[in-house]
Specification:
Blueprint: E1 23-27, H1 37-41, E2 46-48, E3 54-56, H2 69-75, E4 81-85
Antiparallel strand pairs: 1-4, 2-3
Length: 86
C-alpha cells in the first residue's frame, strides 16, 4: 500500500471566534488561595510557586497563544485571575 504525502501548513491557535489575540494576565495575589485550577487548565501559562499560590510563568504574561487561558481564569474559585485583551 502506498501512502500519499501531503504538505501541512503550520496551525495557528484558534479560539471560538478566530485567531487567539494577545492578552495581559494578572493574578491578584491577595485573593489567590492556591487551588491550582489555572495550572491544571493551562499548564504552559500558569504554575504554582514555592509559596503554593498561582503564578504566571516567566515570559507567558501574554497568554502564549493558549486558547485555554480564559478557561483557566474562569476555573479560579475566587476569581483571582484577570485576562484582558492587549
Amino acid at each position: 500500500m502506498v501512502s500519499a504525502v501531503r504538505s501541512v501548513r503550520p496551525v495557528r491557535p484558534v479560539g471560538p471566534v478566530g485567531p487567539v489575540r494577545p492578552v495581559h494576565i494578572a493574578i491578584d495575589t491577595g485573593r489567590c488561595i492556591g487551588a491550582g485550577q489555572c495550572a491544571l487548565t493551562a499548564p504552559d501559562v500558569f504554575t504554582q510557586g514555592d509559596s503554593g499560590f498561582s503564578e504566571v510563568l516567566p515570559g507567558r504574561e501574554d497568554g502564549n497563544g493558549n486558547p485555554l487561558v480564559r478557561d483557566a481564569a474562569q476555573a479560579c474559585p475566587v476569581a483571582a485571575i484577570a485576562v484582558r485583551l492587549r
